[in-house]
Design brief:
Blueprint lengths: L1 H24 L9 H27 L5 H9 L5 H27 L22 H22 L3 H4 L2 H20 L5 H11 L1 H29 L4
Amino acid sequence: MKKYLAELFGTLVLVFFGCGTAVVCGGFTGGTGAGFLGVLGIAMAFGLSIVAAAYAIGPISGCHVNPAVSLGVLLNGGMSLKDFFGYVIAQVIGAFAGSGLLSLVVSNSTGLSGAGANGFGALSGVGLSMTGALLVEVLLTFVFVMCILGVTSSEKTSHMGGLVIGLTLTLVHLIGIPLTGTSVNPARSLAPAVFTGGEALSQVWVFILAPLVGAVLAALVFKAFYGKKA
């Protein structure tokens, strides 16, 4: 239960601070942190949230805070099926708790709106198509999960895991924010989409499916390259 509570808390932190920064910065095109300054700020917020969560709850649960990461670890033999489902449930609850807290803040402000939802087409900063969004999210998640499996595969590098994983998440957000808002995390995408509703909710399947596919590919490639558990 401690592991599941840790995952709930870590996902709450990720969603509140990451999506919250997106709301405050006005996303890719507007608000107080408009344009590329907004992209950098949002990317750093997601990355630093992972660094903070990793060193806070990493020793307890490994700090997955992402169903795609948990799927990659499961397929690589790093966790049981029971723990996988427990982690995913906790992560989804944590994401909704983070979005709920963010919604409470937004509702008490006269200058904020939105929940940091992902999107393509009209909801993409550059008008990326659905096919483009699928490809981008698969690729970004593949890179992200490969990094996690790699850095945690050896005691020589695992102590640097929080920093390396946080920086990698920052990296994928730098290119992903203008394209899709960057998901690479089904729980992070589902909760804001539900709170946003409308077109964001109708598109959320892309940001659930693509990260899971990316995680599966990462686990298969990692096994082929290294042939050992992370």
